[in-house]
Amino acid sequence: MKKMRKTFQYRQQLVHNPEKMTSVLSIFLRFLDTKGLVKQDFSLLFVSDTSSKLLEKWDTCFKFKIIKEARSLTGQMADLNILLKCAESTFDFEDHESSGFIGWDAEMASILLLVYLLPPPAGGKKVPKITFIGAVDHMVQFHKSCCSIDEHLSQNEGRQPYLLAVGTTKAKIHDFYIVLDKQLIPCQARSSLGAFDELFEAHFVFSISYNKALINVYTFLQTTVYNIDIGHVRESPRVTELRAKIFNN
User: Fold this and answer.
1) Greatest CA separation found in the chain?
2) Which whole number is the average pLDDT over 46-67?
3) Which of 236, 232, 224, 237 is nearest to 61 (CA)?
4) CA-to-CA separations, 137 to 14, 19, 61, 113, 127, in angstroms, rounded
5) Angle, helices 37-45/192-205, rounded to nearest 10 degrees
6) How far apart are CA 238 and CA 121, in angstroms?
7) pLDDT at 98
8) Could you tell me the pTM of the whole model?
9) Res. 225: pLDDT tops 90
10) What is the average pLDDT across 110-121?
11) CA 17 → CA 23, 27, 198, distances in Å?
12) Helix (H), strand (E), coil (C) string for 12-72
């Protein structure tokens, strides 16, 4: 941890160099076997309390308001209804087999509700519109602990990081990893909210743009929860509207 702190400035030069940014994990292999390094680099990028904002504010300031807004969505889909029940801790897991959203704990479910409140941008002629479920897969994927992770990684495309939740079921996650460049960065957190916090911070630590399907979700979290670059980040009307609803209710 001490040596990684000393090499922070050099690492930042690498991640901001288009020709060298993909070499960071091969040069600094400790990211792959030492938990807490993403959190440490993020804390060196911002003031000390920025890194703790999601964990401190989500349950007390945001979670129940997000659930309330999600309940008001018209034309609710079956997967959204299940996700709402998970977020409210009212879903009967024993009567259903894990499928789709079924099984996520209340913390993860409440975060995933943001995908419905801040949906993926509309697709164009050459870019098909991404579904809600497709957008969620860009944020977190469940991997059964008895299956091969290498096989999963071999199918991964793109640079944008996502969470890999490994366990027997979505309700019983043993480990969280950030998947980046077909490599696994172990999360220090044991909770889904803490793991998602590390996923968000990884974008800044490795200077990676947000996935297009999740740009509204991440921008909302960046400006509204973490208070990073407020007024300097382009926000969609949906992001601005949701923030107003959250703070005015």
Assistant:
1) 53
2) 92
3) 224
4) 28, 28, 26, 13, 17
5) 60
6) 10
7) 42
8) 0.91
9) yes
10) 93
11) 10, 14, 22
12) HHHHCCCCCHHHHHHHCHHHHCCCCHHHHHHHHHCCCCHHHHHHHHHHHHHHHHHHHHHHC
Nearest to 238, CA basis, from 224, 172, 8, 37: 224
Mean pLDDT of the chain: 88
User: Are 198 and 169 within 8 A, CB to CB?
Assistant: no
CA 20 → CA 6, 25, 29, 99, 110, distances in Å? 19, 11, 15, 40, 36
Chain position carrying tokens 């504010």: 57
Residue 202, φ and ψ in degrees, nearest 5: -60, -30
Q: Do residues 154 and 182 touch, judged by C-beta distance below 8 A? A: yes
Residue with tokens 């979700």: 217
Q: Which residues contact 188 (CB under 8 A, 6 or more apart)?
A: 35, 36, 38, 39, 194, 198
- The residue extents of the domains of the chain are 2-248
pLDDT, mean of residues 205-219: 95
What value does the mean pLDDT take over residues 132-156?
87
Q: Do β-strands 162-169 and 140-144 pair in parallel, antiparallel, or remain unpaired?
A: parallel
Least confident interval from 108-112, 127-131, 158-162, 185-189: 127-131
